[in-house]
Amino acid sequence: MPRAVGLDARGRGVAPAYPRGGPVLRIYGGRGTGKTSVCQRLHDTYVNRLHVAKWPRRDADPALSASGPQTGLIAARPLAALAWLVHELNAPAGRFGRMEFPRFTYGLLAAATLEDVPQSRDDDAGAMRQRHFVQLQRSLEEALDDNADGASVRARFKPLAQQLVPLLGWIAPGLTPLTGLLQQVVGDAFGGGGGGGQPDAAAVRWWDGQLDGIAGAGIGKLLDYVMGLRQQLPAQARNDLEQRLAAAFLADMDAHYDRRHLRIWPLPLIILDDTHTPTGERLLSLLLTAYAQAAGHNNAQGGRVRRPVIVCAGLGPPSRAASVRDRMPLEAAEIDQLDWRSPDTQDVNAWQVWLRAPAMEAGGIATALGNRAPRGLPNLIEQISAGRGGLAWPLITAAQEDLRLRGSGRLNQCTPHELGPTLLALPPAGTAGERHVADVLLHFLVPDRGLIEPLLPWAVALRLDDVADLPAPGGAPPDGVEGRIRDFLREEHWSRSRWAGEGGFVPVVADRVLRELLLHRLRTRCSPEAAGPDAEEALTYWTRLHTAARGRYSAFAHDREGVGRSAYLHHSLALGERAAVVAALHAMFEEGDRPRWLADLQFICAAPRPPDGYARRRPEPPDVPCTACRGPQPDARHSVLGHLVDLLWSQSTLASLYTDDPEGPNNRLRSFLGNIEIAYDDDAATVNATALWPHELAGGRRVPQLPITERGH
């Protein structure tokens, strides 16, 4: 970043690394991946060292961000966001002083002075000021309609501009941050204090060049342009004005660097977060278009225009229009490896570089936890959070609070098997209202808390068609909830975790972290301890839910999507029917398709574990016959398959630890897979699973995503 903005280690301005324009850096990722943290760190690093603007403002007043009904030219939120950037960049930046924006402010003043005013204010002074403002408006409009000369137009515009500034917060609340700047501009350019004043000649010439299809010159030409906008449909008029003001914004920055300075000035830094929101998306679109077109058609001939450095972040994957270079994007921490050449085009996609949000890894988590953390805790936090900082830090701080208790803490008294569930059950640090840190994570991923309970059956459902048959907790959800859930799950920022096997099955809740947190919530909700006197009802709900889900599938054959029998056994295992599942897997093993069987094995073992105490109250039948065993007693292969199901089922959640040494001679998984009497010369899938799966589990990958060698490979 210092090279891009042109700032040396001593805080002095130097020539930027990209004199013809650097890339617009777009950091992307899911919810909680640390994008906002990157933006905030950038802001905190460079504020007061150079001109920096960050949107959205952290202390935004809802009244300002709302900016009223979007019916007028200047009432829309994107323009309010652009005005905030101007306000931020206009602030003095240490040794580099203040940046002026005459082109932007002249355009905004012209639009604002001709804006339709809201209804009369309640106080007498306000109503009087409003009436006077409207009278001045009518006088200016008459002069423009009569094609009055430039002096007459300026004479009528001057008092109107002076009256506008104290009314700005009433006419367009979102533009209130610019009140001070506009007051200064009106005074300097139009004699706001009663004296003379002349507009910035270069800024006026710039607008003359932009409006070459309109007759006249100067402020009068700019006002004629606004009068023309008032005849258009509001949405199209706002779009045109916003595009021109965005171009003026960048032109002001370029003009600032064309002036003679005693020292080299670093380029301004613009940081945009939440660019997935409608306002953020529109703001970025305006800036990208102005950025790509800043040099006009001369860019291909090497036109030198000083563009700001823009870094933005938003939910979701890279745009489908991203360049080939961005199909394998760098992580944000790898930006120094970027080899950038300014493109000779006005195509906005060519000016963007996509960066993955930085992931938190076990090493950094271990450092944050300190030396008292039990072995494997950093790995668990990395797995449960999927490296997303917004999820990792609540887990880290909750663990830190527990570890400070030393001997009385819960984490250091756990077995490795208990460590993950214990971590999720810890109280959150600070004053959060949730009982468990797992609830904090779930509320982070699902900001609309009204969706959490209705989402629980969706986490159980394997296919979308299953949802309608599943009982909802607490009765049918209110009207409209299903549509909100569908929209929520369709958001592009969710990861889509494919399960092993040919075709890569994806469940209804495709993001693995979200699905596991919902299932954890469901399991906790249905446990007798949490339910108290309603324990039987809670356990019954678990039974009803998985029985209804299982009823949609056949126990004997796969359906057209290839999941029918596996889905039936998946829900059977969730109901605690382990013996029936092992018997079915034994029979399926005898069918001989090893890649398919290994995929089915993982699909089935991905079942959520029943709530604590479920097996005592819902014991499975004592004698389950196995058609694949030759005698009345389970044979050796059947017993091994039972152990294999137990092990893989225990490793099907992100809150599990795999403690076996993958290279050790006593590795249980390798032993189980190697002792089911496979024919090594005809079973590459099982041979490769025997070699790979222990290492994959040790590396943090979990069932049902362990790799399978398909036939022909």
Walkthrough of the structure:
The chain is mainly alpha-helical. The protein contains 29 helices and six strands. A six-stranded parallel sheet has the order 2-3-4-1-6-5, with helices on both faces. Helix 5 runs antiparallel to helix 11 and helix 24 (578-589) crosses helix 27. The radius of gyration is 32 Å and the shape is elongated. It starts with a helix and ends in a 15-residue tail after the last helix. Residues 62-70 and 323-328 have low confidence and may be disordered. It comes from Streptomyces polyrhachis. This is ATP-binding protein.
Short description:
48% of the residues lie in helices and 4% in strands. With 713 residues, it is mainly α.
